Amino acid sequence: MNPSTLIAPPALVRRAEQQDTKAIQALDSAHYLHPFTDHAGLASRGARVITRADNIYVWDSEGAKILDAMSGLWCVNAGYGRKELADAAYQQMMTLPFYNSFFNTTNVPAVQLATKLASLAPKVGGRSFEHVFFSSSGSESNDTNVRMVRRYWDLLGQPQRKVIISRNNAYHGSTMAGASLGGMGGMHAQGDLPIPNITHIEQPYFFENARPGESEADFGRRAAGWLEAKILEVGADKVAAFIAEPVQGAGGVIIPPETYWPEIQRIVDQYGILLISDEVICAFGRLGHWFAYEKFGYRPDLVTFAKGVTSGYIPLGGVMVGDRVARVLIEKGGEFNHGYTYSGHPVACAVALANLELMERENLVGRVKDDTGPYLARRFAELKDHPLVGGAETCGFVAGLVLVKNKATNAMFDADLGVGMICRGHCFKNGLIMRAVGDRMIIAPPLVMTHAQIDEMMALIVRCLDATLDDLRSAGELA
Ligand code: PXG
């Protein structure tokens, strides 16, 4: 097949869904290795071809309109079709499409963005974030964190502090360090991971890990205590840092009890270890704040970001470096032998600046905090009455529910049934993108969503839960 026949001339781009789905799928299977994909399975089904998007909707090559309740992959915070972001990229490409930040050079958008991010990062407990290190993704940013944390302790004459503690079911990316920091068993099983000096504690998932009768508050404190136990097991003088997502995203929207983060802060302070807040999903309004550590009131030393900083329009990530680490690196460190070709990419930084400006102008962060977030919380809580739903919680504009076999006992379905995937199938059929993580169904909608669109999404969710319930009843899995 000649691939050139598939390249639509510009005039046709807006009607790209009229392209030949089967032909695209055949070339896709022949040449394109996708992330986290069973390619033999994909080849037999054929990939869904997404061709265009606007506001909170995407369209596929068959012309189906789908409400994207996952914001692409937790990133299209400002919604699709924002001309300002395309204009910013175009203007910057025509002015300076690339220059590096090595060898004593800099560029204006990178400087402006670093300055802007420093002004947006809230000061907590007298600590501020005046410095930023740029990368192109969350994974690269967490690799940067590992290198920075090790360098920090070396410079302070404590090179034995190497161990970074993370959590089971965390997601911190897919590079060697990112996958090792993450707590995904399936990732560790492929390729001898984690790399040395990374260890994990249990996640603060109340539904799964609480004791019978235990209150959320007690569970939160007990779950944080697993960090202290691990520090003592490893040896306090060997622990370099603790890394965690404010709310676990890819793990299934695991929202910690309110008592969790204050106790984590007490523990990292007591043992003097660095705290890394991985906010690749949670920053830039996702939880109703520019940075999520503000919501939970803790004081990280390093903050990982990516995704929402550009609303996903162009790859950009980085690390907000707090004063404690920055001072040591800058004053004692000499040259830090680390960096990427695209660190501070002028086009990515220009798009990020336009995105942050747009978010400020439309008060997207404040809306999620005070208006649409609370409205989503109210509507999502109604799902608890559904016969399949064992629990339903939101935090800002992320939400998760768990599908259970028995609401009284919270008994789960046999994992082999793949109930979450059945539900996800109904979502696609009904024009809704919702993710399944095991039997947890999760959403992270674009922050531009209105009340009416939240209602539209909720109606679709209920329809898909009902269809899943019908399937399970027909299969004899439920009374
Ligand atoms: N940290 C966190 C908290 C993330 O959510 C990364 C790091 C890695 O970012 P990059 O840009 O390298 O992908 C992420 C990414 C999912 C899913 O299945 C989530 C992510 C990526 C891919 C899939 O929910 N998050």
UniProtKB/TrEMBL annotation:
Record CDD domains: OAT_like
Protein's UniProt keywords contain Protein biosynthesis: no
Keyword hit for Cell cycle: no
GO biological process: one example: gamma-aminobutyric acid metabolic process
Cofactor: pyridoxal 5'-phosphate
Pfam families: Aminotran_3
Molecular function per GO: adenosylmethionine-8-amino-7-oxononanoate transaminase activity; pyridoxal phosphate binding
Keyword set, alphabetical order: Aminotransferase, Pyridoxal phosphate, Transferase
Superkingdom: Bacteria
NCBIfam families: PRK07480.1
Family label: Belongs to the class-III pyridoxal-phosphate-dependent aminotransferase family.
Protein name: Aminotransferase
Organism of origin: Hydrogenophaga taeniospiralis CCUG 15921
